């Protein structure tokens, strides 16, 4: 049987630890970028790390321009693309949280130039993945872009961010327990491609967070490093798979569905964590273990903790399977209606 072409795009440099930000110019030069760069950052993250990255690259006589973006929208992506066409930089550096990196990722992909990811939070696996979540694509979910060529995660910077972001990263990581089950289900029922290596890598990240949940707390660098390494591993799992499937299943559909109902709702990873509790219940697997891990790490496990009404949770569950009709998950098997969605959310304690 002839094997289908499978292309993997992986990061060439991954640096995690104290005081790694000063290595940015050395890493760029090693990758062949020694003339020009465009830094994409946010109004807050410019002061947190963006300005320092600009200065570090400038000290090496590189021509460095920057653009401040406010949100992850196609308007911002097009603004960055225009800047890329005007300046023709060798590389784009996304310096900030997930939204700033997603804008940098999609704009650089569309203009065919390399990306370096410099996260200032550990809120979800977008810091290292080949997918981007951008509003305005007529799709309430992520799209394929490119993997960062390098990821520079300075724990000294990230540990000073709001701990809520790190707890959200834990929510995104434990959701791999259900996303891998969904991917396997699609393979069994629909004969879709399933890669055991990518699945194992995603699951390993979820298991490590579960095993070390007590170490993940505000101000704990060891715990933060675990979360960062887990998120980066999940990004690599998606690169190996050539899709987001090992890391994005029914729990992510629930989160995207919730985004449509509550546009200014909770963080992505927080919503995915709560979704994973309920999807694990549908799979009849250890949903209590997922809930316990989220509670230990300080991530939400209820509608109230997400800052949402029970009605929003129920509606999101009912419409989740329609978000990406081509993606086969447990929601295609269970077909939730209002009553069964209500029972599910109550049985898992997500709503009272």
SSE layout and pairing:
Blueprint: E1 13-17, H1 24-30, E2 36-41, H2 45-59, E3 63-68, H3 74-87, E4 91-96, H4 98-111, E5 114-119, E6 131-132, E7 143-144, E8 150-154, H5 155-158, H6 163-174, H7 176-190, H8 196-211, H9 221-241, H10 250-261, H11 268-282, H12 287-297, H13 303-306, H14 310-319, H15 330-334, H16 338-347
Parallel strand pairs: 1-8, 2-3, 2-4, 4-5, 5-8
Antiparallel strand pairs: 6-7
Helix pairs in contact: 3-4, 6-9, 6-11, 6-12, 7-8, 8-9, 10-11, 10-14, 11-12, 14-16
What does this structure look like?
The structure is a single chain. By secondary structure, this protein is of the alpha/beta class. The model has no long low-confidence stretch (mean pLDDT 95). The protein has 16 helices and eight strands. The chain has two domains: 13-161, Rossmann fold; 167-347, Dehydroquinate synthase-like, alpha domain (Up-down Bundle). The protein has helices spanning 24-30, 45-59, 74-87, 98-111, 155-158, 163-174, 176-190, 196-211, 221-241, 250-261, 268-282, 287-297, 303-306, 310-319, 330-334, 338-347, and strands at 13-17, 36-41, 63-68, 91-96, 114-119, 131-132, 143-144, 150-154. Helix 6 runs parallel beside helix 11 (268-282). It starts with 12 loop residues before the first strand and ends in a 5-residue tail after the last helix.
CATH superfamily annotation of the largest domain: Dehydroquinate synthase-like - alpha domain
The pLDDT mean sits at 95
Low-confidence parts lasting 5 or more residues at pLDDT below 50? none
Number of helices: 16
> If you compute it from the alpha carbons, what radius of gyration comes out, rounded to the nearest whole angstrom?
20 Å
Major beta sheet, strand line-up? 1-8-5-4-2-3
The general outline is globular
Proportion of helical residues: 40-55%
Order of helices and strands: EHEHEHEHEEEEHHHHHHHHHHHH
